[in-house]
Amino acid sequence: MKIISGPLSMFGAKVEIAAHEKGIDFELVMVPFSQRRGYDPRHPDVLRINPKRQVPVLIDGDLELFDSTQIFEYLEDLQPDPALWPAHPAARAIARQLEHCSDEIYFPHVVRLMGLEATPEDPAAQAARAAAAEYYRRMEHVLADRAFLAGTYSYADIAFYMAQLFGARKGAPMTDETPRLLAWRERMTARPAVRKVAGAMAGYLASIGEAVPDFLRGLD
């Protein structure tokens, strides 16, 4: 099995963490990245497999997949134990919805902050930070009676952990306003699979002179 990702790919990191959690052996291929040019040159397998020309891409024998969530679903079917979706249908549906919300509701606010780091008072940046903070409050409420977002540890946690990592990088970090969420992040960071992937990303950030979020310091 081969996973093609990038050193600053949030979506690729989700897949990597899931594969490590499941103990799946895979070859990791990192696409070259620079702050000025992005992912360039594009990996030929990425161009061939993904019409959106983005990582991650998975190749397993004759099977070729793109999209982090679709890749994860394959990993879950391939290696059901340990499960990264809850067993009960309702809990599983909630976990899937939370994973979707992390990617499609929360993360777009972080994307809006990209390129606005030097102008935090820009109205667009202020609006994005406010929306991220509101999402944190929602997740704080979700964690009122549980250790993980869907009850048991799941892919929903992996997705939001990586998304909030980028939120912290781009000026929308969690704060003391959401103590349960901060405790959740500590539990997540303590997991070996998360430490391995997030630590590699922290090391890469340090190597290119980018700031490393406080909660990742020491992992690289």
UniProtKB/TrEMBL annotation:
Domain GST C-terminal stretches: 88-215
SUPFAM superfamilies: GST C-terminal domain-like, Thioredoxin-like
Keyword Protein transport in annotation: no
Keywords, in A-Z order: Transferase
Official protein name in the record: Glutathione S-transferase
Organism placement in taxonomy: Bacteria, Pseudomonadati, Pseudomonadota, Betaproteobacteria, Burkholderiales
PROSITE patterns assigned: GST_CTER, GST_NTER
GST N-terminal domain location: 1-83
CDD domains according to UniProt: GST_N_family
InterPro entries, alphabetized: Glutathione-S-Trfase_C-like, Glutathione-S-Trfase_C_sf, Glutathione_S-Trfase, Glutathione_S-Trfase_N, GST_C, Thioredoxin-like_sf
Keyword Aminoacyl-tRNA synthetase assigned: no
GO molecular function: transferase activity
